[in-house]
């Protein structure tokens, strides 16, 4: 069994997520004086890499042109790029991974990547798609933090060929990083569920901000609007890609939501206070049963 | 000018909001050893009153049957009841207020109350409608806290007859209690804006929970769904009343939101990534300009 504190971790794409993953590994996995592992990082932004090295987060840094050299030395690789870029990267660099390496991505949609597995998966490395369910409305390495994963969910989608010992290693790693609930599923279920918990919520937050009559409305806010729209400070190119890559599932969830909204709206139109009260009571019970308050 | 630390405060309805207002006054206005003011409380729940007296939050407690005796001694009265009950209370007890008292309510809708002013307003006391923009998904005095108002908004809707010195006293009081932004407006503007910042947000949160396929969905959550639906743990009877009392404005806001949602949905259907990206960029800019992140 591989020892997590002795592995070489490679992070491709050193922005908010890549940087946060690196910090969580540095703080929770490689902090002991007995740890011999290290973190290698590659990004197009050389300033981020230099800063990460100065801060002792990255041990070695590689420009994009040197990423193959990096990959050949890494036991555990996180590809932290946008969805399409992730797929392109995997296809382009499939022969550069170290033999036996565990390779994962953090893309918010999976069926697209998983429909191209035959173009990059080989027996040489173990590709285990993953999705750390955490983030921030702030971008870039400078805003990264090792603590954003605390008490969050990590979704793993092992392939049929994934080795159980590598899946276990992965679970052990993310537990140490602070994730408390690790869900194993497949790409289709992931994309279906994420369309609701993540993408639909971002669409709603965006529509709500968009429908605000002016930006002074927060003078009349009591916290609800602020809570519902924090995620509207969105990374537009990334979320455009995510929405379109999961179009079918997302549209299904938008339509389900519209039906529920319509039901409440009709109770108000018809002033059906009994049905409205019953609906809100059910919503309260359901939300409480969902936990994580 | 009246001295805030020497006034007798009366709280009618000693639940989450009444209790929190009392605690904020106790902690911020009456904490000095030189303060001679006191807090009187009335509620149907005698256990809450007894607890409040034991905790030193209320100096004197009154059952509902003794509320007139209480009102006759109070300089500043907060009526913390549901909207319809507030109106009924004002009409029923209009002759019991101390001469010169400031009387306010905390109802989340105002035009209905303000359309009945001639049934209770007299020259004997100064009624200044108000709305502390804070709350909690938890209910009752036991969940009250003097700190929920910190950095929140207070909306005041003085009547034409309201005395400027009383409006100033009110502002001074709520500033001391922790509110940082005090907005003066009228009932119609209040109900129009609140339909958006508060009621629409609660309708959306409710519809979102309602459309969740099961309560296990949070295993796939990353914080967005949780943020958007915390307020769905709603007090059903209260919000049913609020939604119906502000029906016209709320329906208008729901329809505006539906239009914005439809716009985003259509960008996804037509895979118009340029328009979608531009829309999300605009949303981001607009939300950032709204502040209070």
Descriptive notes:
2 copies of one chain form a homodimer. Chain A has 293 residues and is of the alpha/beta class. Chain A folds into 2 domains: 4-185, Rossmann fold (3-Layer(aba) Sandwich), CATH 3.40.50.720; 190-289, Orthogonal Bundle (6-phosphogluconate dehydrogenase C-terminal fold), CATH 1.10.3660.10. Helix content of chain A is 46%, strand content 12%. The first copy, chain A, is built from 11 helices and 9 strands. The first copy, chain A, has helices at residues 16-28, 46-54, 67-71, 83-93, 111-114, 164-177, 187-210, 224-229, 236-245, 247-269, 273-289, and strands at residues 8-12, 38-42, 60-62, 76-79, 102-105, 126-127, 130-133, 153-156, 181-184. In chain A, the strands form 2 sheets. Chain A has a 6-stranded parallel beta sheet with strand order 3-2-1-4-5-6. In chain A, strands 7-8-9 form a 3-stranded mixed beta sheet, covered by helices on one side. In chain A, helix 7 crosses helix 10. The longest helix of chain A has 24 residues, at 187-210. Chain A starts with 7 loop residues before the first strand and ends with a helix. At the A-B interface, helix 7, helix 8, helix 9, helix 10 and helix 11 of A face helix 7, helix 8, helix 9, helix 10 and helix 11 of B.
Strand order of the largest sheet of chain A: 3-2-1-4-5-6
Report helical residue fraction of chain A. 40-55%
| CATH architecture verdict of the largest domain in chain A | 3-Layer(aba) Sandwich
The CATH class of the largest domain in chain A is Alpha Beta
* Oligomer designation: homodimer
Largest sheet of chain A: 6 strands, parallel
What's the rounded overall pLDDT mean of chain A?
95
SSE class of chain A: alpha/beta
Global outline of chain A: elongated
Report how far apart the termini of chain A are. 38 Å
At the fold tier of CATH, the topology name of the largest domain in chain A is Rossmann fold
Number of domains of chain A: 2
Strand segment count of chain A = 9
């Amino acid at each position: 069994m591989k020892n997590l504190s002795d592995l070489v971790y490679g992070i491709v794409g050193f922005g908010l997520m890549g940087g946060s993953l690196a910090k969580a590994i540095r703080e929770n996995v490689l902090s002991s004086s007995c740890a011999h592992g290290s973190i290698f990082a590659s990004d197009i932004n050389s300033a981020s890499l230099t800063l990460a090295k100065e801060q002792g987060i990255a041990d070695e840094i590689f420009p994009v042109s040197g990423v193959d050299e990096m990959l050949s030395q890494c036991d555990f690789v996180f590809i932290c790029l946008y969805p399409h870029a992730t797929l392109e990267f995997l296809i382009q660099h499939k022969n550069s991974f170290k033999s036996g390496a565990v390779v994962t991505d953090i893309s918010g949609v999976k069926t697209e990547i998983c429909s191209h597995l035959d173009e990059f998966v080989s027996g040489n490395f173990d590709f285990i798609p993953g999705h750390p369910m955490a983030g921030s409305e702030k971008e870039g390495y400078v805003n990264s933090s090792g603590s954003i994963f605390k008490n969050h969910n990590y979704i793993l989608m092992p392939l049929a060929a994934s080795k159980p010992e590598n899946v276990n290693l992965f679970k052990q790693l993310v537990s140490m990083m602070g994730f408390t609930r690790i869900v194993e599923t497949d790409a289709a279920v992931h994309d279906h569920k994420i369309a609701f918990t993540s993408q639909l919520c971002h669409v709603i937050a965006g529509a709500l901000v968009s429908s605000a009559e002016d930006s002074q409305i927060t003078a009349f806010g009591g916290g609800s609007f602020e809570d519902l729209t924090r995620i509207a400070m969105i990374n537009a190119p990334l979320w455009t890609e995510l929405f379109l890559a999961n179009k079918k599932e997302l549209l299904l969830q938008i339509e389900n939501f519209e039906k529920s909204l319509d039901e409440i709206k009709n109770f108000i139109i018809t002033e059906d206070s009994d049905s409205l009260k019953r609906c809100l009571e059910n919503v309260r019970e359901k939300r409480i049963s969902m936990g994580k308050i």
